[in-house]
């Protein structure tokens, strides 16, 4: 279990409402450096809202979130710094349609981190190589398959040298035959020591890569355990019910 000193992401008693809806209820979650957390739970349980709160795309009503000991900034330059530290990959790939694959990956380092173009290009090519799409560098997003685009989105996040990567259902918009090529990249990242919070229902990935599964429903964390324990002997009624529907 993480100790106070190696906790990279600390979510402490976080509450969030959307009007009457209490979407995050006293959420406590501590993610250690190098740890891989899989967040699982029914639709509408607050998983995306939690990810968005950690990246400060959503505000919270109470509680606190710290990244590497620093509270989330409210705005301005510090917020851009946070977005670099906390990479996020969404269900939809969100690549810039009118920029090449290479430009999609170099844009952040050049604009935000003031990396020289030549260096940014070299780093981007290395990342595209790592996710297996270096030969697509001069193409535009629409010319790539969904699986390739999602791997580019991962490379684009990695280009900012994040401390932690958030993945919100990164494979749920993909055709089945492309899911594994994205999960394989994520599994390698996990094994290389990247700190990751991954919302997914892909149990194969959870078993291979996760240190811990966190089960959310109705805005609460109901259960957390190692993947094997969670999938074979969940204890909460909500988790048992959920697993009986997806297994
Ligand atoms: P999950 O990712 O687990 O499916 P979400 O975090 O997306 O759940 O949503 C949790 C609940 O909050 C849902 O009922 C959703 O309709 C609601 N919700 C999400 N975003 C907003 C928003 N911006 N305004 C109002 N309600 C929202
Ligand atoms: Mg969601």
What does this structure look like?
One of its GO terms (molecular function) is ATP binding. Pfam families: ABC_tran. It is a peripheral membrane protein. One of its GO terms (cellular component) is plasma membrane. Keywords: Amino-acid transport, ATP-binding, Cell membrane, Membrane, Nucleotide-binding, Transport. By secondary structure, the chain is α/β, with parallel strands linked by helices. It contains nine helices and ten strands. The protein has helices at 47-54, 76-85, 101-111, 117-130, 146-158, 176-191, 203-209, 227-232, 237-246, and strands at residues 7-18, 21-32, 36-40, 62-67, 70-71, 86-89, 164-168, 195-199, 212-217, 220-225. A six-stranded mixed β-sheet has the order 6-7-8-3-9-10, with helices on both faces. A four-stranded antiparallel β-sheet has the order 2-1-4-5, covered by helices on one side. Helix 6 links the parallel strand 7 and strand 8 (195-199). The longest helix has 16 residues, at 176-191. The model has no long low-confidence stretch (mean pLDDT 94). The structure holds adenosine-5'-diphosphate and magnesium ion (MG). Adenosine-5'-diphosphate binds at residues 18, 21, 23, 41, 43-49.
Tell me what portion of residues adopts beta-strand conformation. 25-35%
Distance between the first and last residues' Cα: 28 Å
* Rounded mean pLDDT score: 94
Which distinct ligands sit in these coordinates?
Answer: adenosine-5'-diphosphate, magnesium ion
Rounded to an integer in angstroms, the radius of gyration calculated over CA atoms is: 18 Å
Give the strand tally: 10
Instruction: Pick out the low-confidence regions.
Output: none
**Percent of residues in helical segments?**
25-40%
Query: What composes the largest sheet?
Result: 6 strands, mixed
Listing every helix as H and every strand as E from the N terminus to the C terminus, the arrangement reads EEEHEEHEHHHEHEHEEHH
